[in-house]
Amino acid sequence: MSAAPQIEMRAEQPYVAIPARLTMAGLAGLGGRLTEVFAWLGARGHAPAGAPFFRYRVIDMAHELEVEAGVPVDSAVDGDGDVVSGTLPGGRYATLTHLGPPGELARATQTLLDWAAAEGLAWDMSSGERGERWGSRLEIYLTDPSQQPDMSKWETQLAFRLAG
């Protein structure tokens, strides 16, 4: 079940993440990298400033995805090792919050894409020979699975940056 899509303003947000290049089949294993990001922050005395996310940077469904498994932080932190740092861009985002298991996120994503098309909204995205390059396309995991084992109650927000 998904809430109605909406547009919201988001401020710039520093974050740390582990980037990955993988196929759709390898995407399921990326969630385990979030544990590494949390451990990296804790070892440096930092705490996350919000929910963990996947940031899809390049999407080529037939070949490879460039994705980051990350968490927001209160202020800029220099990455090292496998962990990189950056800033999520601020601006207008089309968002949709989904309640249910991760297996339903493809359908929720299509709902958001269809809604935006019907509204005449353009994404912060460009197409090239290596796929779609997104300015900011986020899956934000609002529910901690260790606190809520029932996947039908997991809340995930999709937040895709709009052009302009």
SSE inventory with pairings:
Elements: E1 6-10, E2 13-22, H1 31-43, E3 53-59, E4 65-72, E5 84-88, E6 91-99, H2 105-119, E7 125-128, E8 131-141, E9 155-161
By CATH, the topology is Multidrug-efflux Transporter 1 Regulator Bmrr, Chain A
Largest sheet: 9 strands, antiparallel
> What is the CATH architecture term?
Alpha-Beta Barrel
Structural classification: alpha+beta
What is the general shape? globular
CATH class: Alpha Beta
Chain-averaged pLDDT: 92
Total number of helices: 2
Rounded to the nearest angstrom, the distance between the terminal CA atoms is: 30 Å
Q: H/E order of the elements?
A: EEHEEEEHEEE
* Number of discrete domains: 1
Radius of gyration: 15 Å
Total beta strand runs:
9
Quick take:
With 164 residues, this protein is of the alpha+beta class. It has 2 helices and 9 strands.
Keywords:
2 helices; Multidrug-efflux Transporter 1 Regulator Bmrr, Chain A; 164 residues; alpha+beta
Structure description:
With 164 residues, this protein is of the alpha+beta class. It has a single domain (6-161), classed as Multidrug-efflux Transporter 1 Regulator Bmrr, Chain A (Alpha-Beta Barrel). It is built from 2 helices and 9 strands. It has helices at 31-43, 105-119, and strands at residues 6-10, 13-22, 53-59, 65-72, 84-88, 91-99, 125-128, 131-141, 155-161. Strands 1, 2, 3, 4, 5, 6, 7, 8 and 9 form a 9-stranded antiparallel sheet that branches. Strand 3 and strand 4 form a beta hairpin. The model has no long low-confidence stretch (mean pLDDT 92).
